[in-house]
Amino acid sequence: MDRRQFLRRSSLLAAGAALPFTNLLGRASGNFTELRRNVGYFTERGGTIGWLASENAMAVIDSQFPETARNCLNGLRDKSDHPLDLLINTHHHGDHTSGNPIFKGMAETMTGHENVPKLMKKANEESDEGEPNTAYPTTTYADSWQMDLGDEKLHAKYYGRGHTSGDSVIYFEKANVVHMGDLVFNRMNPYTDRPAGASIMNWIKILETVASEYPLDAVYIFGHGKPEYGVTGSKEDLEVMRDYLSAIIEYVQQGVDKGLSKKEITDKKVLDGFENFLYADFWTLPDNLGVAYEEVTQS
Ligand SMILES: [Zn+2]
Questions:
Q1: Where are the domains of the chain?
Q2: How far is the C-alpha of 34 from the C-alpha of 40, rounded, in Å?
Q3: In the prediction, which pLDDT does 1 show?
Q4: Sign (positive/negative) of CA torsion 159, 165, 166, 170?
Q5: Cα separations (Å) of 47 from 91, 123, 196?
Q6: How far is the CA of 14 from the centre of ligand 1 (A)?
């Protein structure tokens, strides 16, 4: 894919146009699901929003798109009158940050990994479509960050390069709920943003670490999910994602060891054992095999 095609594809992604992995069952006003202790998730279009809405605290994790961010906010207002304390962006992609302008000026704190504003600025520079989104996180961190909010405690942690080079894992400690952002595409071929610093090899390690670091009974929220599997799950679902990424690296490594070309290696529609995964047209298994090839051969 040449640069023009790439930029076109990136801007489509930033705009969230025709993304097949958005929530297929989303309704006009979105869907709210409570998990534990006033913490839940909202789905409509784009990456799953995590929320905390109690008498004395309100927070959102990610912002989808302006119209769905508004719907989310309206729904949260039915749960609590408390002002919005906090917005965290799990990473910079447009389907997680395009609603930021709706929350800006309202959220007392806007947080993200330190690479998120940089990657949002870069995406603005590379896209010639629509208004640039300049509602960047203003409170950034390098390794970890935490905040007491009402009777909940929130943690954000960076585990290194994964889906991008700015992915936060967000932990609601009291509720024992973990928002994974796009580090988990539940039973789906994930988008791997190598120009934004993604690393499949390190992503595997992240899933390994996260699955062992949080309590066994933690509930996980995923950025995207195949409809029949949904956007929440357990440690076991992280392990399925890890196994898929491992299978990608292993397949590519075997091809490289046999002396096959990049073209021969990436000409593969489905991996054995993962036939059930949903594939998006805009980002396919061959795309991920290509990224893995670049990593394995360091090309
Ligand atoms: Zn993403």
A1: 3-235
A2: 4
A3: 37
A4: negative
A5: 10, 17, 18
A6: 9
Distance 297 CA to ligand 1 centre (A): 25
How distant, in Å, are the alpha carbons of 22, 43, 63, 206 from that of 230? 11, 10, 19, 21
Q: How far is the CA of 181 from the centre of ligand 1 (A)?
A: 7
pLDDT tens digits along 2-27: 444 444 444 445 444 334 344 444 44
Distance of CA 186 from the midpoint of ligand 1 (Å): 13
CATH, range 3-235: 3.60.15.10
Residue 56 alpha carbon to ligand 1 centre in Å: 31
Q: Angle at Cα 57 formed by Cα 94 and Cα 110, nearest 5°?
A: 35
Contacts of 167 (CB under 8 A, 6+ apart): 90, 91, 113, 158, 159, 181, 182, 183, 206
Q: How far is the CA of 106 from the centre of ligand 1 (A)?
A: 24
Instruction: Read off the tokens for 241.
Output: 């994602």
CA of residue 179 to ligand 1 center, whole Å:
13
Residue ranges, the chain, pLDDT below 50: 1-12, 14-28
- For residue 197, which of 219, 243, 164 has the smallest C-alpha distance? 164
- Contact, 108 vs 132, CB < 8 A? no
d(CA 233, CA 151): 24
Rounded to the nearest whole angstrom, what is the distance from the C-alpha of residue 55 to the centroid of ligand 1?
A: 31
39 Cα: distance to centroid of ligand 1 (angstroms): 22
Q: What is the pLDDT of residues 257-294, one digit of tens each?
A: 999 999 999 999 999 999 999 888 889 999 999 999 99
| Stated pTM of the model | 0.90
